[in-house]
Amino acid sequence: MYERILVRYGDLTLKGKNKKVFIDRVNNLIQNKVNNEFVKYERNHDRLYILLNGQDHEDIIKSLDRVSGLSSYSLITKTEKDLDSIYKKAIEVVTEEVKDKTVTFKVESKRADKLFPFTSQEISKKVAREVLLNTDFLKVDVHNPELTLHVEVRQDAAFVYCKKIKGMGGFPVGVAGKGLLMLSGGIDSPVAGYLAMKQGIEIEGIHFESTPLTSIESAQKVIDLTEKLARYSPRGKIKLYMVPFMELHEALLNYIPESYNITIMRRMMYRISEKIAKQNDDIVLLNGESVGQVASQTLKSMSVINDVVNMPVIRPLSTYDKLDIIKLSKKIECYETSIKPFEDCCTVYVPKKPTTAPRLDKCIEFEKKFDFDKLVDETVERTRYVIVSDTEHKDITLEGLVVREVI
Fold first, then answer.
1. Residue 30, Cα to own-chain centre: how many angstroms?
2. Where are the domains of the chain?
3. Alpha carbons 47 and 9: distance in angstroms, whole number
4. Which 8-state DSSP code applies to residue 391?
5. What is the overall mean pLDDT for the chain?
6. Rounded to whole angstroms, how far apart are CA atoms 14 and 31?
7. Sheet holding 384-389, edge to edge
8. Is 313 helix (H, G, I), strand (E, B) or coil?
């Protein structure tokens, strides 16, 4: 019955002189994600129609769910711009939607063509009356209906539909620039990456692996999570830097007091991340920190840890509750992977009493106990990356932690 999908851009239409750039970018994302040679695209002012040409609309909608910058979309059907044609199509649409179940409904109309001889309110009343006369399973409720039938009369035709499917919102990924996401393998950081992409930031990932101090399955978790995030990236691929952190990790365990271990470990990770980001044109660092969630995420800890870098650090989850983060993690299908019980270098040796209010002068004093600058530089030099794809699974538990390309 439905032969097209109506795509709405939302806030992109408010971007002034940059409006065309934003809309062109999101249209390219749509075509990349849909990736179907049989569907056609029809631009009409500030909206896009995807002509299905017999293709499965569920597959198309699943693809649209992974496109940032879309406000909403609807399965929609086109008809002639006269009342009799609109009546017939409206009855067909509601009958298909409700399947003879008794539901409450209302009609909302929009008359974009001001030459059409009836106002929006008149169209709604006439269509509602005709639908009620020709069905036995609808009751009117204009305040809280279970079903809303939409009728749009535009210059070229009339369109009828029922549902508005909420899109990702935000802005097309990549339009804001590129950031480096610190991926731990837990619940929070993949959600932070998703939210960053939703706001137009293309991401690269960085993971600090300490095999054999940590298991190879811990690194595999990060590969698997990056594959999930790659579904939202422009080309379905994300570059993931694998940082060999074991030597630094061991030095921290040997030289740093237990209560400051996590704080200074995070400072080392920030130093390394900044160096790699600057080598690869990432303009911000991103992570999954949420205020007060753990000892290293108090405001005092964040301030002391942040002191070692000069580039912006964005924390998309900074004010999120854990339950809200878990909800988003499940939405992007990362949760079941994130909770697998393989510890990373931040959790394998958690201090019994980590400081929640570290002092910067103490951090500097403790760091003087060993030549961390040399270790940081050597670690950066030995860092490699792997290209993670949403279509090609990498199993490093079988292949070994081998990344073939050098920065």
1. 15
2. 4-166, 177-406
3. 7
4. S
5. 91
6. 22
7. 313-314, 284-286, 177-182, 201-209, 237-244, 384-389, 405-406
8. strand
Tell how strand 237-244 and strand 201-209 pair up: parallel
Phi-psi region of 100 (alpha: psi -120 to 50; beta: other; left: phi over 0): left
DSSP letter for 39, please.
-
Cβ–Cβ < 8 Å for 384, 241: yes
Q: Please provide the DSSP assignment of 319-362 as one string.
A: T--HHHHHHHHHHTT-HHHHTSS---TTTTT--SS--SS--HHH
Helical (H) or strand (E) element with 263: helix 261-279
Strand runs labelled E in 169-323: 177-182, 201-209, 237-244, 284-286, 313-314
68: amino acid identity, one letter? S
Residue 343 — pLDDT band, cuts 50, 70, 90?
A: low
E strands in 45-87: 47-51, 72-79
User: Token match 């949403």: residue?
Assistant: 390
What type of residue sits at position 90? A
Lowest mean pLDDT among 172-176, 242-246, 351-355: 351-355
**pLDDT greater than 60 at residue 403:** no
Using alpha carbons, list the distances in angstroms from residue 41 to 47, 49, 50, 174, 315: 11, 6, 5, 22, 37
CA-to-CA dists, residue 237 to 69, 103, 203, angstroms = 19, 44, 10
Q: What was the pLDDT predicted at 17?
A: 74
Q: Which CATH class is domain 4-166?
A: alpha beta
pLDDT in tens, 136-146: 889 999 999 99
Facing residues of 152 across strands? 110, 159
Q: How many CB atoms lie within 10 A of CB 136?
A: 7
Preceding omega of 234 cis (within 30 degrees of 0): no
Type of residue found at 300: K
Is 196:316 a contact under the CB 8 Å cutoff? yes
CB 138 within 8 A of CB 107: no
End-to-end CA distance of the chain: 52
Kindly state which CATH superfamily the domain 177-406 is placed in.
HUPs (3.40.50.620)
